[in-house]
Amino acid sequence: MSEAHNKMGLPYHGQMEWSIQPASRIDAVSYEIRGTLAKRARELEALGHEILYLNIGNPGAFGFRTPETMRQAVIRNLQRAEPYGFQMGIFPAREAIAMQFQDRGLKETRYDDVVIGNGVSELVDLSLRALLEPGDEVLIPSPDYPLWSASVVLNGGRPVYYPCPPDRDFEPDLEALASAITPKTRALVVINPNNPTGAVYSKETLKALAEFAKAHQLIVLADEIYDRIAYENTDVVPMATVVDGGVCLTFGGLSKVYRACGYRIGWAVLSGATDSAKDYWEAIEKLAALRLSANMPGQWAVQTALGGHQSIAELVAPGGRLHLARQAVMDAADASNELSLIAPKGALYAFPTIKAIDQAEREKRPLPFTDQDFAETLLEEKHILVVPGSSFNFQNHAHFRLTLLPEPDQLREAVGAMDEVLGQMLGR
Question: Which fold has domain 26-64+314-425?
Fold first, then answer.
């Protein structure tokens, strides 16, 4: 026993007997996108191996630059960015976002319907913290972007999943959604364009989701961070434009469309029957005030980003780098013996199917291996990092997600390596 403990009459347990235990709710949180596989990839990289990171949609890591006009907007306003700002965001940024919504047909949107945060991730957390009581349920698509599930759990709620199966091209199963509602359901999450599948929902599907939410008095939480990233002239319909009589909170930001992940600027826009959400909006403002303000330098890029030349259109058009990358993955999957792919219509990802596992699951027989096994083997043997599909709260183990950000030739070779690994695992 130490002398200090002895004088104070405190029990002494010894250094090795004492440990700080994390909160139990953390056990229910999973984020494999930056989890154990990513940790192993860094270990391999430290040993001298070159890793192809296909796990994260991080444009700057693959040579995509934030538009010069946005960089200049930040530089020219650095002096104005040194103090804290208003908790809901600076006026020029909020006004620009409101005007974008007005251009989309939401004529009643005003700057005070907008809150700016440190990326969409922070605003997802704030919006759920302002909404949920312990045990409240949130309807989330499966597969989902796991931040949504984690944020529900961390704010005392329970995620309830509605399926978006491959046989519907990953669009929601509306009948299954109807069976998931309970008296505890508070919100409906819609991710469109979808991460991880690349699906872009039809207007009819979005209208059905909006009517369902209205009928059950649910707030619609519309994650539209990829709203301008769509291929082959696919029309992305803003969820807020089809919510009639209900309440919609739409999330967007600079990270993906404007290739400015590090700026950490996202926004949420309240629309629809906003009078019924006054108390909720005030709660969000109170939480925003607790964190003082969002990143100030990045906010000065918003007005320029939304009002200037939309260079993303060139990247997703035929001949553009993202379009070519998508085509390279599609062509390689078509040539593969072991993979199939539903063509992504939007976002920055492909979600291929491992045929052997898919067939085993359909036939209700033992799996030859799991998506996790495949991802681990691919990393160890080919030094390619992907994310298992089951990491997106998807019961099907026959998928994995890869980003479309590398050069087309890199992606073509990577899919070829995946095909080779799967053939080896199947003993072909």
Answer: Aspartate Aminotransferase, domain 1 (3.90.1150)
Tell me which residues of the chain have a pLDDT lower than 70. 1-16
Beta strands in 203-352 (DSSP E): 219-223, 247-253, 266-272, 339-340, 349-350
CB atoms under 10 Å from CB of 131, counted, come to 21
Q: How far is CA 274 from CA 194, 238, 247, 251, 277, in A?
A: 26, 17, 6, 16, 5
Report how far residue 315's alpha carbon sits from residue 312's, in angstroms, rounded to the nearest whole number: 5
- Helix or strand (DSSP H, E) at 353: strand 353-354
Question: What pLDDT, on the 0 to 100 scale, is given for residue 30?
Answer: 79
- Which residues, listed in sequence order, are joined to residue 163 by a DSSP beta bridge? 142
The Cα 140–Cα 149 span in angstroms is 7
Give the pTM: 0.93
**Region class of 326: left (phi > 0), else alpha (psi between -120 and 50), else beta:** alpha
Distance, CA of 176 to CA of 395 (rounded, Å):
15
Nearest to 264 by CA among 312, 290, 308, 302: 302
Kindly list the strands in the beta sheet with 219-223, ordered across the sheet, starting from the edge strand earlier in the chain: 114-117, 266-272, 247-253, 219-223, 185-191, 137-142, 158-163
In the CATH hierarchy, which fold is given to the domain comprising 68-307? Aspartate Aminotransferase; domain 2 (3.40.640)
pLDDT (0 to 100) of residue 11: 62
How distant, in Å, are the alpha carbons of 39, 60, 135, 387 from that of 53? 12, 13, 37, 10
Helix (H) or strand (E) segment spanning residue 377: helix 371-382
| Euclidean distance between the first and the last CA atom of the chain, given in angstroms as a whole number | 64
Angstrom CA distances, 45 to 42, 274, 380, stand at 5, 50, 11
User: Read out DSSP for 276-287?
Assistant: GGHHHHHHHHHH
pLDDT at 3: 54
| pLDDT score, position 158 | 97
Domain boundaries, the chain: 26-64+314-425, 68-307
